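Repro case for the chain-ordering regression, as requested:
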Amino acid sequence: MKHPVRMLVVCAAALIWLIPFAWMAVASLRPDVSGTEDLASLLPAGPFDFSNYREAWASGRFPLWYLNTTILCVGILIVQCVTVSLAGYAFARLRFRFRGTLFTLFLMQILLPPAVLVVPNLAMITRLGLYDTLPGVMAPYFASAFGVFLMRQTFLSLPRDFEDAAMIDGATRLQVIVHILLPLARPGLVAFAIVSVTSHWNEFLWPLMALNSPSHQVLTVGLASFTSAAESGGSWGVIAAGTALVAAPLLAAFVIFQRQFVASFVFTGLK
Amino acid sequence: MMAPARVMSSNRRRSVTPRSSDGVYPRAAIQPPIWCCLPQPATLAVPALYAERIRTRRKPLSAGAVAAALLAPSLVFLIAFTYWPIVEVGLRSLTEQRFGETARWGFGNFARLFADPHFANAAWNSTLYAAGTIVPSLALALAFAVALRESGKLATVLRTCIVMPLLIPLVAAAALFVFIFLPGGGLLDWYLAKLGIGATNWLGDPSIALGSIIAITVWKNTGYYMLFFLAGLAGIPEDLHEAAKLDGAGAATRFLRITLPLLGPTLGFVTVIALLNVLTQIDHVIVMTQGGPSDSTNMLLYYIYQQAEQNYDPGLASAATLVSVAVLLALSVVGLRALERGMHHES
Amino acid sequence: MKRTLAACALALAMLARPAAAATDIDFFFPVPVQGKLSNEMQRLITAFNASHPDINVTAVFAGSYDDTNLKTRAAIQAGRPPAVAIESANFVREYVITNDAIPLDDLIAKDGTTPAAFMENFWPALRGNAMDGTHVYGVPFQNSTPILYYNEAAFREVGLDPDHPPATWQEWVDAAKKLTKRDGNTVTRYGLEMVTTYDTLGWLVSAFTMSNGGQYYNPGYGGEVYYNDPTTIGAVQFLDDLVHKHKVMPEGVTDPNAVGNAFFTGRAAMIVNSTGALSFVRENMKQPFRVAFVPRAMVNAVAIGGGSLIIPRGNSPERQKAAWELIKYLTSPEVAGGWSRFTGYFAPNMHAYELPAMKEFLAKNPDAKVAIDQLAYARGWFATYNTVAVRKALEDQVQAVLSGRIKAPEAMANAQKAADEILRPYVDRTAMKLPE
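-- result from build under test --
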């Protein structure tokens, strides 16, 4: 191994990075841990069981939150795929008036995330009658300048032979996009999908403001109220278990599909 | 891996010429440039000005109309949720409506905004927060990337550890760190006590609360930035390093003279992303400190959220939003210009 | 022919069904203290739905008092107000000022009584926050006062008598000094800790100010607060001294998590917290503990805390009627008594204490009686125009004092200035609006 000292330092850093997760795992498995003196111990003795998870599952509403969050992410992704593919194609393959200006307008949106525009966006979805609905939470994300840029770059890097041949044979543009370009652009789409789902799964401020009823609640907002001691009863073990339940899906997906995740974030960043 | 990082460019009109299958001659653009959006098929004679080889094809629609149709879905949402809101924010910020009065135009909201000590606090805190998060997390991310660029089992595992915080929501991180920062019995204080250091009120002391919030953000984002640096590093050809080594350059010199300049575009890009995060990531403030203690963790977006939701003052909230957006755009333009300059370097 | 017969039969069957479906109403409730109150509330609502088949209530847990206020106002703004909401008792005045809650007088009248007579059911100290003039806007649901929780074992350890907890500020400081344990330079046990985060801090400071002889705010007019008066400055100075002069309280801001944890693990011998957390403390405190009045400066005085039920404006008459049924149920002696026993809040409905279940409970749990006894000295919770901002104007300054960054007199001058600025629009339209 090159640079053993350097590696040691990095190992120590990585261990530090893991500490919060380590505590989460350890505390969630200790029953009745509240009020004990060594609440913070990372290497406790004593009985371990899943009672905190059972309690968290019972007093939170995790199945509902999982469902709503999944609907949210999938819904956003589906519409995004449509809008960004069409727009990406337009910028990549067509020449038209104002193309440059329009492209700049699109790019600026990256610098104007919905989080900053919560106040007017809230007014907008209320006007559209979408307050306190999942579509209302999804709507501001349907146009993704980031995705448009990504798809444009992806399409640009694809050779035009197939398209040209197909068009000569009489295919419409839509057919070209759907049957030829998209399959070829799959890596880009997959990367985009992973980034999109991750960021919307973890979104908090906008769902907090746009949703009210508990039946529409998503994981992040649910977790925030769950850990505010009111529903978890203030028990740190239960709070840790609840946090684990929220963090688990993406973490598990990451550990399994590590390579794809890393490649996706890198790919999208590079483009 | 990718070729030298071709990162985001702003409005450069890159004429991309796709190569033909034999890789020799650039293919001509398929469509003749139609600046006047004529609805007729392209068998019209095209002015010699556009002297590219064009292929005559039957086209039922002009490129302009097609483009409009393809862009429409995105544009609808873009206008509804980005551009119209900006107009609305502008209008609302110029509308003064105090309690019980009728609305009227004026700059009163801006006057109140700049006179409000909470806004000054929020702006100052955001600046401190920006410096405190961007510099350490970028430095650490770069350091980790340089140290972990090899592909061995150990390196992969270590990279995973550092990237993991990226995957959890910030509120989940907040929940864990509330305990870690608990005075006396929390993780940090408990282990520090074993070293003989007394209890510290990490989130309740106005002088260090912001530091604690910064620590959470650095923990969460470093892995994300590390990924970009890894890609950027991989794009630097090995031969450059080899040549430099042959010339007798040490590791530090190589880093400063070769790596860093070639990472310019990546650095610029990551800085812009980090800046965006500074402005938009306030979940932990909402859940942990609510802007306190004593306004020491109040930030721009939290101030906006407070004015809109707690004080029912949409005029002030809109004025603050406008100012924040303006600052963000200004800083980002600066960052992106640096990016483009970096790309010039590269080519 | 068969088809027509079938259709007729179906139509008849549909006509024979009960006339109206149940009225659906939603109900926002906060849980401002630690404990499993959310589940218990859901249980109460389920019981209500079962006993009232013509009403279907959806209970929505909405966070803290501040959060619930935000959610309610957002819902009202969006045109979908909840039918009932529990708001912090001192927010009711603001709902009246902004015209966002309806007066309940008509609904009370339909039951054949008057607002004054209706409010006679509730403890006197609660009536001020629930009414505006003679109109009833909020019905008290859960109420609390701050109380002193103290560790019995620690008391005995240092020679203090647990049967005679400190009753005055002087005794309090003396006791706290004895109870504070040091190990070299670090403190291993603080004599006293209090919750000093937003909302609770303002509540406690108002209590201390009133105990110090002051008024703190104008209970008859929502545009005046008295931060920069000697009584308030004295109270804040007392807090400052506890931290910096007597060194019995930790520096900085301590949130409920930290305070609770400190008490349970023996790192704090006395804590001041709401009586609403009594059940939570009872469940988690493994060492013996007792509760007592908050010690007094000049007089015994505390501010009531808690939540009241309001009906936001914008609800149809059917929803209002259903909401009123829910309100009556939740504030009935039986339900109020049960909630009190479960949480530690005291029951706002005085008649709850005449029921045998309550008498039995109090006999077995004398600590639950302390808050009731302290009610004799309870006053209203400060409420003004834009209560939250005015409250935070004080809290930001006091938090700075607790952290050693500023001294009490300067802090209170700043707080008064900030508060006056916030109240100005309201004052200009009311007290300062003079004839042309």
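Ordering looks correct now. Residues 314-346 of chain B form the longest helix (33 residues).
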